[in-house]
TrEMBL record:
<dbReference type="Pfam" id="PF02770">
    <property type="entry name" value="Acyl-CoA_dh_M"/>
</dbReference>
<protein>
    <submittedName>
        <fullName>Acyl-CoA dehydrogenase</fullName>
    </submittedName>
</protein>
<dbReference type="Pfam" id="PF00441">
    <property type="entry name" value="Acyl-CoA_dh_1"/>
</dbReference>
<dbReference type="InterPro" id="IPR013786">
    <property type="entry name" value="AcylCoA_DH/ox_N"/>
</dbReference>
<dbReference type="InterPro" id="IPR036250">
    <property type="entry name" value="AcylCo_DH-like_C"/>
</dbReference>
<dbReference type="Pfam" id="PF02771">
    <property type="entry name" value="Acyl-CoA_dh_N"/>
</dbReference>
<keyword id="KW-0560">Oxidoreductase</keyword>
<dbReference type="InterPro" id="IPR037069">
    <property type="entry name" value="AcylCoA_DH/ox_N_sf"/>
</dbReference>
<dbReference type="InterPro" id="IPR046373">
    <property type="entry name" value="Acyl-CoA_Oxase/DH_mid-dom_sf"/>
</dbReference>
<feature type="domain" description="Acyl-CoA oxidase/dehydrogenase middle">
    <location>
        <begin position="128"/>
        <end position="221"/>
    </location>
</feature>
<keyword id="KW-0274">FAD</keyword>
<feature type="domain" description="Acyl-CoA dehydrogenase/oxidase C-terminal">
    <location>
        <begin position="235"/>
        <end position="386"/>
    </location>
</feature>
<dbReference type="InterPro" id="IPR009075">
    <property type="entry name" value="AcylCo_DH/oxidase_C"/>
</dbReference>
<dbReference type="InterPro" id="IPR006091">
    <property type="entry name" value="Acyl-CoA_Oxase/DH_mid-dom"/>
</dbReference>
<feature type="domain" description="Acyl-CoA dehydrogenase/oxidase N-terminal">
    <location>
        <begin position="39"/>
        <end position="125"/>
    </location>
</feature>
<comment type="similarity">
    <text>Belongs to the acyl-CoA dehydrogenase family.</text>
</comment>
<keyword id="KW-0285">Flavoprotein</keyword>
Length: 582
């Protein structure tokens, strides 16, 4: 990874993990594409993959520092997961399923529960979140699993399916109806259960994530001891909805890691494949696909990382912001995969050849990102239900908003350490949305900077796209504020999707304001912002297009990253602009 000055500890740690996992294009190794694809044919993970990560200590980054692990904040884990996902999303999902399961323990568990689970996870045990049922799916209001008081414990009955890590996992977080108390989450430790009182289902055969333990578990008068309840009785549904906010955000790492891999595969193929007497990269349509993919990756990063930081900087905002990330970032990931598939042509369909045939695996694996932790429609519905509170205040800066934005978008410091507390999470943001409400002051500041510091042409390009987005934005939020709509309607889905675009545009602008102060006037230091904003505008207006004058610099940067250790990321953009400035 490229950086300027001293590396922040999180990025130094990611560089260490990158070295451990090695070059994915190598012929051998548990994280090489060749090994991954070969063993996936047998629905298996490469031998040694999990042992390598456990020996390195990856599970420790699922356990907060407060409870003896090394997880400082969600940004920390996000960056590590991106590194893992760019090689094998299946392994990233395995650990992600564990994170989903144990978060309720960190948020609502007592001292003994936290200590026992932390010790187990650090030692390499897995966990699962047993919520879904065969007949009810994501209808969490219907729950046929019951926990009946029995002496100093409970008798547990019910079937949970499908559940990630249900067979491999030692700890099972069970959503059950507790007799006389309502729904609750129970911490079930398989090591404390009587043999024969529970059974696991066979693995489900899936299109992607082959080798992942997606199975189920059935309880039949399974006696669980006292002390298994997490938090308050009757609060199970609320706790699920709040815990999901964390993993919905973390899923962005799965998408961005996949985007990095497929873009790298497509770019290398475009340089090596010759047609009509030259490399296909020189075909304008091929270059357009790859440039668009790169811009979408940068947008995804601008959108997801600040929300990851918000878990420790402003957790009450996650109810809305996590759904924005969960909708937009996987959607961008799907489009990046599609853009690269067009570059690869027929080779995108092969299970061998280019990059050992891993592209089709990445394509299949990434499809899950829009499905679990709430589908695209579920997350757009969640955004839509909060728009009536957000829209009337969209042009009014929030009190203390600038300080919150600085914590989210200033890269010079790490996010604060996460101190898990269920009380800090909310079911709705109400009017707390500094990202939406900070747009107008940010645009005014950007115009002042452009007039003072930027070349005339670049200042004009930035001013033009900011003006176009501002005009559309004003009309959009005024219309939402003046109208009433059914959050379950298709109209609401469209409104929520547009809000996510405006959220992303603001995130890109704040990143430039708070983290590119020294690089703005250098080549590429503002051009990237113009391009990503134009790309976002294109999602709202298909007639909009990129400023061609900024593309050559971006293409040179893409090609320079191809053979080095750098991600396709804004840190690379910043480092390149800094080098140009000096």
């Amino acid at each position: 990874m490229t950086g300027s000055g001293a590396e922040r500890p999180a990025y130094a740690l990611v560089a260490e993990l990158e070295r451990l996992l090695g070059d994915p294009t190598a012929d051998t190794g548990p994280f090489s594409y060749a090994e991954i694809v070969a063993h996936e044919e047998d629905d298996a993970l490469p031998p040694g993959a999990l042992d390598l990560l456990r020996t390195w200590g990856f599970p420790r980054y699922i356990v907060p520092e407060e409870f003896g692990g090394r997880l400082r904040n969600l940004e920390h884990l996000f960056l590590l997961t991106r590194s893992l996902a760019r090689r094998n999303p299946t392994v990233a999902v395995l650990f992600g399923s564990t994170l989903l399961a144990v978060n309720p323990v960190w948020l609502w568990g007592d001292e003994e529960q936290r200590a026992r689970v932390a010790q187990g996870i650090i030692s390499g045990e897995l966990a699962c979140f047993a919520v879904s049922e065969p007949d009810h799916g994501s209808d969490l209001g219907t729950n046929d699993t019951t926990a009946v008081p029995d002496g100093d414990g409970f008798l547990l009955n019910g079937e949970k399916w499908p559940v990630g890590n249900a067979t491999r996992g030692r700890f099972v977080i069970v959503y059950a109806a507790v007799e006389g108390s309502g729904s609750a989450l129970l911490l079930v430790d398989k090591e404390h259960l009587a043999p024969g009182s529970w059974t696991n289902h066979p693995y489900v055969r899936t299109v992607g994530l082959r080798g992942h333990d997606l199975s189920g578990i059935t309880f039949r008068d399974t006696r669980v001891p006292d002390g298994v309840l997490l938090g308050r009785r009757g609060a199970g549904l609320v706790e699920i909805l709040q815990a999901l906010q964390i993993t919905r955000t973390a899923i962005g790492a799965l998408s961005i890691g996949t985007m990095d891999s497929v873009l790298r595969i497509g770019l290398r193929h475009a340089q090596e494949r010759r047609l009509y007497g030259r490399e296909i990269y020189h075909l304008p349509v091929v270059r357009r696909h790859l440039v668009n993919a790169h811009l979408d990756l940068l947008i995804a990063e601008c959108t997801a990382l600040p929300v990851a930081r918000s878990l420790s900087a402003g957790p009450s905002r996650l109810s809305l912001w996590s759904s924005v990330v969960k909708y937009l970032v996987p959607t961008l990931g799907e489009e990046v995969v599609s853009e690269v598939a067009r570059v690869l042509g027929a080779r995108s369909y092969l299970r061998e050849g280019v990059a050992s045939g891993v592209f089709q695996k990445l394509q299949r694996d990434h499809a899950i990102a829009s499905i679990f932790e709430g589908t695209t429609h579920v997350n757009l519905h969640n955004v839509a239900t909060q728009l009536p509170a957000v829209a009337p205040l969209a042009d009014r800066p929030a009190a203390g908003g600038e300080e919150m934005l600085r914590q989210l978008f200033d890269w010079s410091e790490e996010a604060p350490v996460w101190r898990p507390s269920g009380r800090a999470l909310r079911l709705t943001n109400a009017t707390e949305d500094e990202i939406t409400r900070g747009w107008d002051p940010a645009v005014a500041t950007a115009r002042e900077i452009a007039e003072r510091d930027l070349p005339v042409a670049e200042a004009a390009a930035l001013g033009k796209v900011l003006g176009e987005l501002s005009a559309r934005r004003a009309v959009f939020y005024a219309a939402v504020a003046a109208d009433s709509f059914d959050p379950a309607s298709t109209q609401a889905q469209d409104l929520a999707a547009e809000h996510c675009v405006h959220h992303a545009a603001a995130s890109c602008l704040y990143t430039w304001l708070y983290s590119f102060a020294a690089e703005r006037a250098a080549e590429g230091g503002t051009g990237w912002l113009v391009l990503v904003l134009q790309r976002l505008l294109q999602r709202l207006d298909r007639t909009a297009g990129p400023d061609e004058s900024h593309l050559p610099w971006l293409e040179r940067l893409m090609l320079s990253c191809l053979d080095g250790p750098e991600y396709f990321s804004l840190r690379t953009v910043k480092a390149a602009a800094g080098a140009a400035r000096s």
